[in-house]
């Protein structure tokens, strides 16, 4: 046991004593965001199960931090994700989880949930194969629910892994030490699942890049009010109908594996090749990660045969800056973008309004195009707050000569000619049809 582990265990022992002595502490040991109890409040339940059954099983649901949701979109966005996962887990009690199972958090303001499983009904001992089934079921339920309810920009960064462990009661060892050990085992199991998952997906991604198994879809960008097509956004897809068909999965694994530049090069190559069939005079929006702007392959694009063969000129290309990773040094980043502007390329910022990092990018980078995040457009025809926010962005665009694009418009009623002030139209705006179409 490390010095850090020893200190943590000692604090748990002291905390357990305090909770027993002072009941008013219980309220302070509930997480403020999720409302869930933390593990020290479950000691009594765990002890009771152990005394009656000599065994207890715990699941740990680890919402991974490498996704950088908090760094890019702010702590409120990460709190939102944690609350959603907590609500999903609680909704599973009585269904995928038994009614007596207890959902908790490992610690206040942490990123890990702990689930205390009630004793089995049909057999005397817990079995690892049963835990494996529960783990897979919980993981699937969380992912499906998050995909359906979380904003697309955040879902691209979401990841969680479920681990499990069984505690066999030993009356000679302090209870707190046994609970600490079983939680460590469950966390290690979730880390092991993450490692196995990463290795498998890395191998698949490397194969996709090597064999160039990427194809491009073009989604139209149309000008209001006449719906004239002015350009297309190039959307990359992986092979088949599996998980790698979705760009969010492709780039999530690429980001974790330091293969973002390699994947982006392939996507750009495929998009420019497919652009040969585009009608003359239309713009092509190409997604670019912040870390890729220094890629020599991208910097040489103006003189490349790829651009020449596509029959496009630099002034038809819009480099759309996405923010899967944060921009660290804006002064350096601006100088690189000026290089591309000097060649004739235009700059767009994606997902405007999705977080404070994007708003800072708008101020620092002064883009030619601003793409309003789909989360602000969804249900805008019935949401006055969203109407006011989008109206403010449109007025900003009008006053700074930045063209505004709304993502995900699916119906005419969502267009809403008036934004913010009565009579203020968005005649100069454009929209990109739903990227899920």
SSE layout:
Blueprint (H helix, E strand, L loop, with lengths): L2 H19 L21 H11 L1 E9 L5 H5 L1 H18 L9 E4 L6 E6 L10 H22 L2 H4 L4 E9 L6 H36 L4 E9 L4 E10 L9 H10 L3 H15 L8 E6 L7 H4 L5 H6 L6 E5 L8 H14 L2 E7 L3 H10 L3 E4 L1 H4 L6 H17 L2 E7 L20 E4 L4
Parallel strand pairs: 6-7, 7-8, 8-9, 9-10, 10-11, 11-12
Antiparallel strand pairs: 1-3, 1-4, 2-3, 5-6, 5-12
Helix pairs in contact: 4-5, 7-8, 8-9
Question: Summed up, what is this model?
Answer:
The chain is α/β, with parallel strands linked by helices and 437 residues long.
Query: Mind telling me the CATH class of the largest domain?
Result: Alpha Beta
Average pLDDT, to the nearest integer? 81
CATH superfamily of the largest domain: EAL domain
Q: Which CATH architecture of the largest domain would you pick?
A: Alpha-Beta Barrel
Report low-confidence residues grouped into runs of 5 or more: 1-6, 416-437
Which oligomeric state applies?
Answer: single chain
Spatial ordering of strands, largest sheet: 5-6-7-8-9-10-11-12
Task: Give me the strand/helix succession.
Answer: HHEHHEEHHEHEEHHEHHEHEHEHHEE
> What is the CA–CA distance across the termini?
53 Å
Number of helices: 15
Counting structural domains, the number is: 2
Overall morphology: elongated
Q: Look at the helices and sheets and give the structural class.
A: alpha/beta
Instruction: Return the CATH topology of the largest domain.
Output: TIM Barrel
Strand content: 15-25%
Largest sheet: 8 strands, mixed, barrel
Rg, alpha carbons = 26 Å
